[in-house]
Design goal:
Length: 256
């Protein structure tokens, strides 16, 4: 990558720099190659490091770059298409979709979990909730981390199963959940930032851009389970089946 001075452009300087860097990635770098450090890149392009960081962050958000612990910034491979919707609704764990159970724990629900579960379900605030952790693997790489919240009332037969912890416990919760008759589900997708525990599982830096897919599973009694799956935004392209409609909502935010 040769030295290039940026000319005055009508768009923000970081956006123009992003375009120049994107062209350089196509011409001068291979997938997985490590980029020079920020100081060297800023000097080559004659920009402030703050401007460079903005451009690099945008390229990471677009899936062109990856920041890896102990390695630096590398050129990302093409995004992997990950199906999150299908023509046939099913409980989590029913099909072979790359999800691997990690663990399950039973605790009282937090206020945030109660908000996800909503009202009208077969549960109460003082009843425990099973939290199942799963990881989704595609092409040998962890692309998503999931927390599946299942009220104890949804899986009443679980206490009879001898699986105290670990993947076996997670599979037991999923098996019991599948005994229910699924009445429907809804799904939402939003852009977020990786929490520390998700970042560790996905080999990302905390705060890295992620796609958060929230799915609520319903029976005739109400909400039976809620899944919150965090996908790597740099490597994943979410695809939807015939019934995987995307709803766009605009919420007003009031500054406090």
């Amino acid at each position: 990558m040769g030295t290039t001075q940026l000319e005055t452009a009508p768009e923000p300087k970081y956006w123009h720099l992003k375009t120049v860097l994107s062209e350089a990635l196509d011409q001068d770098f291979a997938v997985g190659e490590v980029l020079p450090n920020e100081r060297e890149l800023a000097a080559r392009f004659g920009v402030a490091r703050a401007t460079l960081r903005q451009a690099l962050e945008q390229l990471e958000l677009e899936g062109r770059l990856q920041r890896r612990r102990g390695v630096g910034t590398t050129v990302a491979p093409p995004r992997v298409g990950v199906a999150v919707g299908s023509a046939q609704h099913s409980w989590p764990g029913e099909s072979v979709d790359g999800w691997e159970p990690v663990d399950a724990a039973e605790t009282l629900p937090t206020a945030a979990v109660l908000k996800l579960l909503g009202t009208g379900g077969a549960f109460a605030a003082d009843q425990p909730v099973h939290t199942v952790r799963r990881t989704r693997v595609s092409h040998g790489q962890a692309v998503a981390a999931e927390l599946l919240y299942v009220p104890a009332a949804s899986v009443p037969g679980l206490p009879a199963i001898e699986a105290p912890a670990g993947p076996a416990r997670a599979r037991a919760v999923l098996r019991e959940l599948q005994r229910l008759v699924l009445d429907g589900q809804d799904r939402s997708v939003e852009l977020g930032s990786a929490r520390a525990d998700d970042a560790k599982e996905l080999d990302r830096l905390p705060g890295a851009p992620v796609l958060v897919v929230t799915t609520r599973y319903f029976t005739t009694a109400g909400t039976a389970a809620v899944s919150v799956a965090t996908y790597r935004a740099d490597t994943c392209r979410l695809t939807f089946g015939d019934t995987g409609n995307v709803e766009i909502t605009h919420e007003s935010r009031v500054a406090s």
